[in-house]
Design goal:
Layout: H1 2-20, H2 33-48, E1 51-62, E2 69-73, E3 79-85, E4 91-97, E5 103-110, E6 118-123, E7 129-138, E8 144-154
Antiparallel strand pairs: 1-8, 2-7, 3-6, 3-8, 4-5, 4-7
């Protein structure tokens, strides 16, 4: 009986140690002067069109890995989502999913495209619910790079 209790305690201790050593994805902000200049231009442009910034964040991203963002959206409201990636990345993608995990938006830009490192799209939700947005960028020269996301809402 004592051996069985000792074995259970040892196994539970090993389980606790292994669960604490798992990597956790955390959003870490970053600074990129070129992206900062683009952010200011985008904000100014959408402000003239009657939008206000609801949420925004700079984030360190790893090449080829999506950065999940969860946002609450209100039915019938006009939202503009903007993702700005590192200028040296060769591919930029954004996928958006509704609460039922159905993909409602997919946008892709490549390095030579007219829009370049900025993906922007209008979205009007059909229901008031949380949505999941997954921006991604691929860069051959950098493993980690800066990205910026903005969610704007039309008020006029």
């Amino acid at each position: 009986m004592k051996k069985r209790i000792f074995t259970c305690i040892c196994l539970s201790g090993l389980f606790c140690l292994s669960s604490k050593s798992q990597d956790v994805i955390r959003q870490v902000s970053c600074n990129d002067d070129f992206i900062a200049h683009q952010v200011d231009s985008v904000k100014e442009d959408f402000s003239r069109k009657g939008y206000i910034v609801v949420k925004e964040a700079s984030m360190t991203m790893e090449s080829q890995y999506e950065m999940p963002i969860i946002v609450p959206l209100t039915e019938g409201t006009w939202y503009q989502f903007v993702f700005i990636g590192d200028i040296s990345s060769r591919l930029y993608e954004v996928r958006m999913y509704d609460w039922n995990e159905r993909q409602v938006v997919y946008k892709k830009n490549q390095w030579g495209d007219v829009d370049g490192n900025i993906i922007s799209y209008l979205y009007i939700p059909q229901a008031s619910e949380f949505h999941l947005i997954k921006p991604l960028q691929i860069n051959k020269k950098k493993k980690q790079m800066c990205g910026y996301v903005m969610l704007l809402k039309r008020v006029k």
